[in-house]
Design a protein that fits this description.
Helices cover about 25% and strands about 20% of the residues. The protein is α+β, with helices and mostly antiparallel strands. The chain folds into two domains: about 55 residues, no CATH class; about 50 residues, no CATH class.
Length: about 110
């Protein structure tokens, strides 16, 4: 049983937490919202539903990721790519998971 993200038969599933038990199924061909995912999820009382993701064209998706950049204080494009890679790797259905180490000055 998985809590929010799980892997089964080479696919990753993200439980949307909605009343209908829909999930996002991710594989090498892309992602889709499905009913009755193969991965089985359990939910805690404090778990809230996630919004349904929007299907964006490739260029729109790139723009959406770039919009995230203004919220992440990194020095270079390479550092920003590392942060995006960490976000994606943390959504894998099973470990090992990457560890994000943040450092900086306190103000």
């Amino acid at each position: 049983m998985f809590n929010r993200v799980g892997a089964f038969e080479g696919k990753v599933y993200i439980d949307l937490g909605n009343r209908d038990w829909n999930a996002i199924e991710i594989d090498s061909s892309g992602w889709r919202i499905i009913e009755l995912p193969s991965a089985h999820f359990q939910r805690t009382k404090g778990m809230s539903p996630l919004p349904e993701p929007l299907q964006l064209a490739s260029e729109e998706g790139k723009k959406a990721i770039e919009e995230l950049r203004r919220f992440i204080n990194v020095k270079s494009d390479a550092d920003f790519r590392l942060v995006i890679a960490w976000v994606l790797a943390s959504l894998r259905g099973q470990g090992p998971y990457p560890v994000l180490v943040l450092s900086g000055e306190l103000r």
